[in-house]
Task: structure prediction
Amino acid sequence: MAAQELMDLADRFNLTTDAQDRLTTYHDLLAKWQKTVNLVGPRTLEHFWSRHMLDSLQLLELVRKHTVEKPSATVADLGTGAGIPGILLALSGIENMTLVESDIRKAAFLREVSRVTETKVTIKNNRIEKIADQKFDLILARALAPLSKLFELSFPISHVNTNFIFPKGLKVDEELNESKTDWQFSCLSHKSLSDETGSILEISDLQPKTR
Result:
């Protein structure tokens, strides 16, 4: 079943054979490490391909949109946890990926995935607030915080042309309205492929409102 699910995803998202091999290796490492380190919700592991993998791969088109014309574009995944979506996107071919994760055990897992799959990523085992000396072209975050908090965390590591991709759930409209109190921004909303109640927000022109 897992092999068929991967093949379906490969066809859907145009994954190379090498990418498929790397993603399979990731799955195997995740299952192994999950026995001693709580990387993902235990009940979600049996639905890995239809949940975590689809959650991540559905972002490929948007990420490619913002990086294809600028090969040097830098991408950051904030609070990446087990590397979802950041390392899965890197395994699928997205370059210049920085994974920000404060948990030392999860960071160790990410280093092992990078080593075994020979996938180059930058791993920042630190809090987001501690990397404000860097500016990224594209910033991602999945299931990390409400939108207003994401803006607060990501704005210091952004520049005027930075874009943001944030998957959101059922409360997306509430979070958008609340964030408009302190922030101004442009936003495109895309329907999630993995959650019928979810959306993927594509945000640009982020600025704090002046009072």
Q: What stands out?
A: The mean pLDDT is 93.
